[in-house]
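Sequence in, structure out.
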Amino acid sequence: MRLAWTMIVAALVPAAALAQGDPAKGKAVFARCMACHQTVAGRNGLGPSLAGVVGRKAGALPNYAYSAAMTKSGLTWTPLALDQYLAKPAVKVPGTKMAFPGLSVPADRDNVIAYLATLK
Protein backbone atom coordinates (compact mmCIF):
# COMPACT_ATOMS: atom_id res chain seq x y z
CA MET A 1 0.00 0.00 0.00
CA ARG A 2 2.83 2.39 0.86
CA LEU A 3 4.39 1.88 -2.59
CA ALA A 4 1.08 2.65 -4.30
CA TRP A 5 0.66 5.80 -2.22
CA THR A 6 4.24 6.88 -2.99
CA MET A 7 3.63 6.40 -6.72
CA ILE A 8 0.44 8.47 -6.58
CA VAL A 9 2.17 11.27 -4.69
CA ALA A 10 5.14 11.14 -7.07
CA ALA A 11 2.79 11.65 -10.00
CA LEU A 12 1.09 14.65 -8.39
CA VAL A 13 3.92 16.48 -6.61
CA PRO A 14 6.89 18.09 -8.38
CA ALA A 15 10.01 15.91 -8.12
CA ALA A 16 12.02 18.54 -6.23
CA ALA A 17 9.35 18.64 -3.53
CA LEU A 18 9.77 14.90 -2.89
CA ALA A 19 13.51 15.11 -2.36
CA GLN A 20 13.80 14.74 1.41
CA GLY A 21 17.54 15.16 1.73
CA ASP A 22 19.95 18.05 2.06
CA PRO A 23 21.25 19.25 -1.33
CA ALA A 24 24.49 20.60 0.18
CA LYS A 25 25.26 17.23 1.76
CA GLY A 26 24.19 15.55 -1.47
CA LYS A 27 26.68 17.60 -3.46
CA ALA A 28 29.44 16.32 -1.18
CA VAL A 29 28.29 12.69 -1.63
CA PHE A 30 27.97 13.29 -5.38
CA ALA A 31 31.73 13.86 -5.51
CA ARG A 32 31.96 10.04 -5.75
CA CYS A 33 29.92 10.17 -8.96
CA MET A 34 31.90 12.90 -10.69
CA ALA A 35 34.47 10.49 -12.09
CA CYS A 36 31.79 9.44 -14.58
CA HIS A 37 28.94 12.00 -14.49
CA GLN A 38 28.77 15.69 -15.32
CA THR A 39 26.20 18.13 -13.92
CA VAL A 40 26.13 20.49 -16.90
CA ALA A 41 23.53 19.92 -19.61
CA GLY A 42 25.03 18.59 -22.82
CA ARG A 43 28.27 17.43 -21.22
CA ASN A 44 28.43 13.69 -20.97
CA GLY A 45 31.34 11.83 -19.45
CA LEU A 46 31.75 8.11 -19.12
CA GLY A 47 28.16 8.32 -17.87
CA PRO A 48 25.42 10.67 -19.06
CA SER A 49 25.02 14.24 -17.80
CA LEU A 50 22.75 14.30 -14.78
CA ALA A 51 21.54 17.85 -15.34
CA GLY A 52 17.75 17.65 -15.35
CA VAL A 53 17.75 13.93 -14.53
CA VAL A 54 14.91 14.11 -11.99
CA GLY A 55 11.74 13.54 -13.97
CA ARG A 56 13.55 12.45 -17.14
CA LYS A 57 12.85 9.14 -18.86
CA ALA A 58 15.75 6.72 -18.36
CA GLY A 59 17.92 6.17 -21.41
CA ALA A 60 16.50 9.18 -23.24
CA LEU A 61 19.29 11.78 -23.14
CA PRO A 62 20.42 12.58 -26.69
CA ASN A 63 24.05 11.99 -27.63
CA TYR A 64 24.74 9.33 -25.04
CA ALA A 65 25.13 5.61 -25.77
CA TYR A 66 23.07 3.91 -23.07
CA SER A 67 23.03 0.17 -22.49
CA ALA A 68 20.13 -1.69 -24.05
CA ALA A 69 18.99 -2.54 -20.53
CA MET A 70 18.68 1.14 -19.62
CA THR A 71 16.87 2.19 -22.79
CA LYS A 72 14.41 -0.70 -22.36
CA SER A 73 13.95 -0.21 -18.60
CA GLY A 74 10.82 1.92 -18.92
CA LEU A 75 11.92 3.96 -15.91
CA THR A 76 11.33 7.61 -15.29
CA TRP A 77 13.77 9.09 -12.79
CA THR A 78 11.39 9.94 -9.97
CA PRO A 79 12.89 10.27 -6.48
CA LEU A 80 11.63 6.75 -5.71
CA ALA A 81 13.18 5.24 -8.86
CA LEU A 82 16.45 7.08 -8.22
CA ASP A 83 16.52 5.82 -4.64
CA GLN A 84 16.03 2.23 -5.75
CA TYR A 85 18.59 2.55 -8.55
CA LEU A 86 21.22 4.29 -6.42
CA ALA A 87 20.87 1.60 -3.75
CA LYS A 88 21.84 -1.18 -6.17
CA PRO A 89 22.06 -0.15 -9.83
CA ALA A 90 22.64 -3.66 -11.19
CA VAL A 91 19.61 -4.99 -9.29
CA LYS A 92 17.23 -2.23 -10.40
CA VAL A 93 18.41 -2.35 -14.04
CA PRO A 94 20.09 -5.71 -14.73
CA GLY A 95 22.54 -5.23 -17.59
CA THR A 96 23.22 -1.55 -16.90
CA LYS A 97 26.73 -0.53 -17.82
CA MET A 98 27.05 1.52 -14.63
CA ALA A 99 29.65 -0.38 -12.61
CA PHE A 100 29.03 1.59 -9.39
CA PRO A 101 27.98 -0.78 -6.57
CA GLY A 102 25.49 1.71 -5.10
CA LEU A 103 24.99 3.92 -2.07
CA SER A 104 24.07 1.70 0.86
CA VAL A 105 23.25 4.54 3.29
CA PRO A 106 19.66 5.79 2.78
CA ALA A 107 20.54 9.32 3.97
CA ASP A 108 23.29 9.51 1.32
CA ARG A 109 20.76 8.56 -1.35
CA ASP A 110 18.23 11.10 -0.05
CA ASN A 111 20.88 13.81 -0.07
CA VAL A 112 22.14 12.97 -3.57
CA ILE A 113 18.59 12.92 -4.91
CA ALA A 114 17.92 16.32 -3.30
CA TYR A 115 21.09 17.62 -4.97
CA LEU A 116 20.15 16.13 -8.36
CA ALA A 117 16.74 17.83 -8.08
CA THR A 118 18.55 21.19 -8.04
CA LEU A 119 20.28 20.53 -11.36
CA LYS A 120 18.47 22.01 -14.32
